[in-house]
Amino acid sequence: MTRPPTAAQRRVIDAADPVTGRLRGTPAQLTALVARGLAFRHPRPPHDHFLTPAGHRVREAEPAASPPDTPAPPPEPAAGGVFAARVGGEEGPAGPSRAREVHSAWQGLLELRRMTSPDGAVDRPCAWERAHLVRAAALALEAAGHPPAGPDPADGYRVRATPQPEAVAVYEADGARLRACADTLREAGWQVGEHTGPRTAARYLLASPRRV
Hints:
Blueprint: H1 7-14, H2 27-35, E1 39-41, E2 49-51, H3 53-60, H4 96-116, H5 127-131, H6 133-143, E3 158-161, E4 168-171, H7 175-187, E5 190-196, E6 203-209
Antiparallel strand pairs: 1-2, 3-4, 4-6, 5-6
């Protein structure tokens, strides 16, 4: 991509589903995004369009400032804000509405797996999950009902990035809950091993997306 997307294209990208990257726009807008390498058209019906990894990077990047003589577009209303899986350690929503959001996000991710896998399988992570390891692992855990840690790390899981490629660390103070997290991630298509911290002797999981 040699130049940034237009304002209209940026709005289409920003409005993409936060988990699956599914796009909604006019045929001309979607075709232009495909030509720029920011989207792809799924070969199977209903031939929906999805963000490519480059499109996800554009979506997550801060938009460039508008020239002084260009009026800013009016803000678009958002229903409940943008969904984000809880990785642990942050304050977050709870209750039935949050459970519905998490369930919907997980079902959307399974659909993305089905549509982007050559054999339509949903038992292994897709490209989006490999590009967003922490969020993908956290979504799998939260969707299975595991409680994410709040500000007190003793009350749930925490998912963190690691220096290893395609691997995240999962911490849980309770040993039984840590093993339950491992089972959940394996069922979600992740390879999981249990390790001991060299200095703290605390147990943690190292998880990476399974390829086959």
